[in-house]
Design goal:
3 domains, single chain, FAD/NAD(P)-binding domain, five-stranded parallel sheet, 14 helices
Length: 421
């Protein structure tokens, strides 16, 4: 089966929805997302769960647009030829053709290895938040939220709302940097108001700045964490540790399509065009900056893709404002040097293939480690350990290989019909 569209958008989070809305006059549009419901990670749970009025307004407008098709539960496997993608849903693989492609593939958490991080009960900060939003039972559970960035506060607020007891919030950034960041929120009043609301929600919860989790402790599952603070190690009893060191752009699809990558993000021009012909990118894929930046980049990309460049240019000033916020965010909450030394020789770095730090340090590159230890060759295909080894050892993963997502054998075999020889 082959479907033809004028504009295809990969990702139904804030950037993707904003792009679809802006491009709604540009012909037939498809929005592809591997989740069953629209919203991405920030607006998780589908329209019925959304509290952000911007999300509701976008969804209501898109529901009325009869030229916009949503393809949920659908993954992009590969590009079969320019202007053509092979995708797969729960039933079958099929081909989608496009004139313009907008990538709005979001970001993922940076997870860094430390002793005990593979114990049951240790999760990513955003990961536990997503589970909680999906109904995972946390009532009465003691949770330590640790890592870096404002996401920690949002996670803690969500978990508290779901009945968890937040034992502590552990932020690795120092107090002077945090104070400077807080003062800079005056440039973005909406973020300042959001911070005040989160502060009120989390009042009374221990907040440890200039601190980080050095180990997770327990026999069969997590029972406590050790926190390095003010030159000493303190123990905090808990049932869960939600630990994440910020977000990193998802660039696998962009790299597979030949888009240039710069400083870990997809490189774009002022109209969100990538270096690859007829492909644009918006949202966290171009650099992590939050929902406001994702929305304005999505609008610009949607307008540009539908041939309305002059209308897109109107939004450049707003984008500049949120890019400034993103730059401050990256500067203040960059992972500290001490985190590179937490992994011990027997600490597992590649969780899929059980490869330890001592095995990896014998190799000069990602490719060498991959060939000799199978690091990055498990189910996650290096999506977790690839970022960790980049941070720990300075390795850059190899080029993306297709299929980009796990595929049924029949989906790939049909591409190359058997030929008699």
């Amino acid at each position: 089966m082959t479907q033809d569209f004028d504009i295809v958008i990969v990702g139904a989070g804030p950037a993707g929805l904003a792009a679809a809305h802006a491009a709604a006059e540009g012909g037939r549009i498809a929005v592809i997302d591997d989740n069953p419901l629209a919203g991405g990670q920030i607006w998780r749970g589908g329209p019925a769960q959304w509290k952000d009025p911007r999300a509701q307004a976008l969804w209501q407008a898109l529901e009325k647009a009869d030229n916009v098709s949503f393809l949920p539960g659908t993954r992009v496997l590969m590009q079969t030829r320019p202007g053509e993608l092979l995708v797969q849903d729960a039933q079958q693989a099929h081909t989608i053709r496009y004139h313009r492609l907008i990538l709005a593939t979001g970001a993922r958490e940076l997870l860094l290895p430390f002793p005990g991080w593979t114990l049951p009960g240790v999760t990513g900060a955003g990961g536990l938040q997503a589970l909680a939003k999906g109904g995972y039972p946390l009532q009465g559970k003691r949770v330590v939220v640790a890592g870096s960035g404002p996401l920690l506060l949002a996670v803690a607020a969500t978990l508290k709302e779901r009945g968890a007891t937040i034992a502590a919030i552990v932020e690795q950034a120092g107090l002077p940097a945090l104070a400077g960041f807080a003062a800079g929120l005056a440039l973005t009043p909406s973020k300042a108001l959001q911070a005040l609301r989160l502060g009120a929600t989390l009042r009374g919860i221990p907040y440890y700045a200039d601190s980080y989790v050095s180990a997770a402790c327990g026999e069969e599952r997590l029972g406590a964490v050790l926190v390095q603070r003010k030159g000493a190690s303190i123990g905090i009893a808990c049932d869960y540790l939600a630990c994440g060191y910020g977000l990193l752009p998802n660039t696998e699809l962009a790299r597979a399509l030949g888009c240039a990558i710069e400083e870990g993000a997809v490189k774009t021009d002022p109209w969100q065009h990538t270096s690859a012909a007829n492909i644009l990118c918006a949202g966290e894929g171009t650099g992590v900056g939050g929902v406001d930046l994702a929305l304005v980049e999505g609008r610009i990309a949607g307008l540009a893709a539908s041939g309305r460049a002059s209308e897109a240019q109107v939004h450049f000033g707003e984008r500049d404002k949120w890019r400034g916020f993103a730059a401050r965010l990256a500067r203040v909450f960059a992972p500290r040097e001490e985190l590179r030394k937490l992994a011990q020789p027997d600490t597992i770095v590649c969780r899929c293939e059980d490869v330890c730090d001592s095995e990896l340090r014998e190799h000069p590159s990602w490719r060498s480690a991959k060939l000799h230890t199978r690091c990055g060759m498990g189910p996650c295909q290096g999506r977790i350990c690839g970022n960790a080894t980049d941070f720990l050892y300075g390795w850059r993963p190899d080029a993306v290989r297709t299929p980009i997502s796990p595929a049924r054998a029949g989906s790939i075999i049909t591409l190359e019909p058997h030929k008699e020889t």
